[in-house]
Each structure stands twice: as structure tokens, then as C-alpha cells.
Amino acid sequence: MENDGRGPGPRPEGETGAPPESADSPADDRVPQPLPQVTPQPQPLPYEGVWRFTAPAEDASVPQARHAVRDLLHRQGVPASDDLVQGLLLIVSELVTNAVRHAALLSPMLAVEVAVGAEWVRVSVEDNHPYRPTALEADHGRTGGRGLLLVREITREAGGVCEVEHTAGGGKVIWAALPLKPAGIR
Fold first, then answer.
1. Smallest Cα–Cα separation from 96: which of 83, 112, 85?
2. How far apart are CA 94 and CA 125, in angstroms?
3. Cα dihedral 53, 113, 71, 91 in deg (nearest 10)
């Protein structure tokens, strides 16, 4: 092809339409450029991953969710202290209980998710009820009603983060992410 496949249009100044000289050509006095360095991506640790399961919004789901999370952390070999595991299980119990008590009418199913990274573990409970709870202050005359306050306190003491977010479907997800190692040990 006489136009080197560039079409019949105008060419930049100095371009003749002849094929470019190859890199092996003696007329090539370009300095070879080093190849870009490819940094290998770190491989995930054996315990890293995300697991999700659903359960009916009923009382029996509270201990089932707690046991499922405990068994998952153990089976995956997550390097979490006993205190951290107990805190996570209490968080799961409180969040599932809240979904059962306050969201079951509009959300007959709930989802529990456990996400584990190299340095943290996150548990979340999602339901389809649009109400966004707030942590209540302690009222010594009432029993119950302080589950989210307890979740936030456990999370704070562990050096983690707890949030309530809306879902795309109009429900909510409440999650708590805790470091695998206490803040002073890192």
C-alpha cells in the first residue's frame, strides 16, 4: 500500500508516506527506553474474602447468625483475638435482633455479610425496611432499645468504625468494621 494504511488525507509535515524505519535500522539513533516495571499485586491472605447469607427475620435467626459468623471466622483461620471475636458476635447478635424486632414487617428476610481483609473484619446486617435507627442514650427505666448504642461502643473501643447506610433498594445496611489487631499493637 502506498499510503501505509493511513488513508489519503493530509500528512504531518516531513512525513513522506514511506514506511517508518525499524528499530534495527542503523539510522535509528533513539535511546532505548527501559521497560516499565510491573509491580506484582499482593496475593490475598488465605482468610481474606466476603461471605453473605440470608435468613428469615425471626428470633431463631439471631443465634443461627451468631454461630454462622463464629464458625466462618474459625474455618477461615482469621487471626482474631478471642476478645475481638466475642465483640463481633455480640455486634452480629444485636444487629440481627434489631432487624428481627424492627424491620420484619417490611423485610421478612435479612442478609448478614462478613468481609475480612488483611487487617480488618467487617460485619453487616441488611434489611429492606427504610427506617434508619439512631443510637439511643441509656434510659435506666427501659429494658432494650440500646442495641445500636452497644454496637457503636464495642466498635469504638476496638478502634473500628460503625455506620448506617441506605441501600439502593430503599432499605438499610448497618455495618461495623474492626481492626484485627488492637490499635496499640499495629
1. 112
2. 10
3. -130
Extract the C-alpha cell encoding 89: 458476635
Contact 76, 114 (CB under 8 A): no
Instruction: Give the total residue count for the chain.
Output: 186
CA nearest to 127, candidates 151, 101, 145, 148: 101
Query: How far from chain centre, in Å, is Cα 51?
Result: 10
pLDDT digits over 109-149, tens only? Answer: 999 999 999 999 999 999 999 987 765 555 555 555 578 89
